[in-house]
């Protein structure tokens, strides 16, 4: 966990996210909290992480998502050396898809 992020406001925000129960609730909340561009960027990053996890090349990912190689590289660095946030979510989503 990044101590620079940890504070009462961030904790409250994450608790708010955890309180959401449906995709529709997520759309409503994030549309209020973020710009459309921010939502699209976060969604793109997660999709890039998924494609990296699936073994796709940077070229394939860039063609499919429009993400720059710098963005893909940054996400790959998080997958390799980060706090396993992407890996946790991707694993859970895979498990839900297989259930």
What can you tell me about this protein's structure?
By secondary structure, the chain is mainly alpha-helical. The chain folds into two domains: 1-33, no CATH class; 35-98, Trp Operon Repressor, Chain A. Helix content is 77%, strand content 0%. Helix 3 crosses helix 5. The longest helix has 18 residues, at 36-53. The mean pLDDT is 95.
Comma- or semicolon-separated keywords:
0% strand; 2 domains; globular; 99 residues; Trp Operon Repressor, Chain A; mainly alpha; single chain
| Separation of the first and last Cα atoms | 30 Å
CATH topology of the largest domain: Trp Operon Repressor, Chain A
What is the architecture of the largest domain at the second tier of CATH?
A: Orthogonal Bundle
| Mean pLDDT metric | 95
Strand content: under 5%
Summarize the structure.
The protein is mainly α. It has helices at residues 8-19, 23-33, 36-53, 58-65, 69-81, 85-98. It folds into 2 domains: 1-33, no CATH class; 35-98, Orthogonal Bundle (Trp Operon Repressor, Chain A).
Fold blueprint:
Elements: H1 8-19, H2 23-33, H3 36-53, H4 58-65, H5 69-81, H6 85-98
Helix pairs in contact: 3-5
